[in-house]
Write a structure and sequence with these properties.
There is one protein chain. Helix 3 (about 75-80) packs parallel to helix 8 (about 190-200) and helix 7 (about 150-165) packs across helix 8. This protein has one domain (about 50-210): MoaB/Mog-like domain (Molybdenum Cofactor Biosythetic Enzyme, Chain A, 3-Layer(aba) Sandwich). It has helices spanning about 10-35, 65, 75-80, 85-90, 105-120, 140-145, 150-165, 190-200, 205-215, and strands at about 50-60, 90-100, 125-130, 150, 175-180, 180-185. The protein is of the alpha/beta class. The termini are far apart. It has a 6-stranded mixed β-sheet with strand order 2-1-3-6-5-4, with helices on both faces. One of its GO terms (biological process) is Mo-molybdopterin cofactor biosynthetic process. Keywords: Molybdenum cofactor biosynthesis. This is Gephyrin. It comes from Nannochloropsis gaditana (strain CCMP526).
């Protein structure tokens, strides 16, 4: 056998390491090539789905706010919650495209909702105010005839959670449903109640808008 010279062991180790490095580079390049060809990424590397873009119209219903007796605070409260990070984290990017204040008057409430839903075709309309038993609170009476499909389960959920905040939640008369492709829900006039109601609806809204925005949906409801 040939005599081994000093340094032969190091040369052999270097040669083996070089081969192993080449094999590792080959494996890595193979993985990258498969990913480029559309293979599924590992679960930890999956890209986040794009948020659903939602156009929203906000209607404050109040005689006094409309006449300027006091500043409307529930409208800005709705806008603040709907465009918050909480909604974006649920995959909803909300854009408020219309907002207005009308008195407690059924024809004026209905006119706004019909224009926004039928002509502008916004994805959602949220109203605030006019939902109690007071003589001039007529929002439910204005909205209910405009609904094609009611959502009684969402109303039940609003009431269930609302009573955990205050027993007076039962005095509100919420309406929720769909007109054409527009989701409509009536909220109380209090900014605090507005936030509580929207927080309650938040987990449900991605499914609502997913159904309304998808022509064919594989759902089991």
């Amino acid at each position: 056998p040939n005599a081994r010279l000093p340094g032969d062991d190091g040369a052999l180790r270097g040669e083996e390491e070089g081969k192993e490095g080449g094999r590792e580079r080959g494996r890595q390049e193979g993985k990258e090539g498969r990913l480029e060809r559309g293979a599924t990424l590992p679960s930890g590397l999956l890209p986040a789905p794009s948020p659903i873009e939602i156009t929203v119209a906000l209607l404050t219903v109040s005689d006094r706010a409309h006449s300027g007796v006091y500043e409307d605070k529930s409208g800005p409260a709705m806008a603040h919650v709907l465009t918050s990070e909480a909604f974006l984290s649920k995959g909803l990017r909300v854009r408020v495209v219309q907002s207005d204040i009308v008195p407690d008057d059924i024809p004026q409430i209905q006119q706004k909702i019909c224009i926004w839903a039928d002509e502008l075709k916004v994805d959602a309309i949220f109203t605030s105010g006019g939902t109690s038993f007071a003589p001039r609170d007529l929002t439910p009476e204005a909205v209910r005839p405009l609904i094609d499909k009611e959502a009684p389960g969402m109303v039940w959920r609003i009431m269930e959670v609302g009573t955990k905040h205050t027993p007076f939640a039962v005095l509100s008369r919420p309406v929720a449903g769909v007109r054409g492709g527009t989701f409509i829900v009536t909220l109380p006039g209090s900014p605090k109640a507005v936030k509580e109601n929207l927080d309650t609806l938040l987990p449900l809204l991605p499914k609502v808008f997913g159904l309304l925005k998808t022509a064919t949906c594989d759902h089991k409801a």
